[in-house]
Amino acid sequence: MTQPLVSPEPGSPRLLRWAAALTLLPIPIWFAAAVALAPAPAWRARYQAAAPAPSGAVTEVAERELQRYWDRSYPSVPGANDVHSFHAEWDTCLSLDAARDVPFMLVSDAGASFRVDGADLLHVENQKQRSTAGEIVHLERGVHHLRVELFAAGWPSIALLASFDGHAPKPVGSGSPAPGVTLRHPAPGAEPCAGR
Prior knowledge:
The protein is mainly beta. It folds into two domains: 11-39, no CATH class; 43-184, Jelly Rolls, CATH 2.60.120.380. The protein has helices at 13-23, 29-37; strands at 43-50, 54-63, 67-69, 76-77, 81-82, 86-96, 100-108, 111-116, 119-124, 131-139, 142-151, 157-162, 170-171, 181-184. Strands 1, 2, 6, 8, 9, 11 and 14 form a seven-stranded antiparallel beta sheet that branches. Strands 3, 7, 10, 12 and 13 form a five-stranded antiparallel beta sheet that branches. A two-stranded antiparallel sheet has the order 4-5. A hairpin with a 3-residue loop joins strand 4 (76-77) and strand 5 (81-82). The protein starts with 12 loop residues before the first helix and ends in a 12-residue tail after the last strand.
């Protein structure tokens, strides 16, 4: 007669031995699973010193969402540029399986702009206080190029929020799309959304 399989009780020696064995693996399984399941970066970000105009080398990095705040706790931008004077651009390829109306909100305390497929949609002036611009945009089925620019002064902040599913807007990034919506990070150096 066979015994039924019973899960070990929490805190049992058998469970503790398995947990200890997993932590001794060269790459713990939990870490590999977290990396494999983490969403890919959605935005290609480019940072450049801007004193008084954009100049010097451009530092390109991948970012998961467009929501950034700089202050004394986070005083630098990629490429070790001065946080008080820099120019930044973010772009991503938004793919929709059906046409939809999408509310977008651009929030910043520095000069910022938002474009969809090259068309200017939202602007926030550099007023040294957080300002918001918003608009509901009708987007057809297919791929759309989203681009945000920031001209920083002081300790800037910026966020692009949207709602793809009728819920409250949240920062546009890897975790924000709804079913039928994807964001694709353009390849380094590539033209954004080529072949759309």
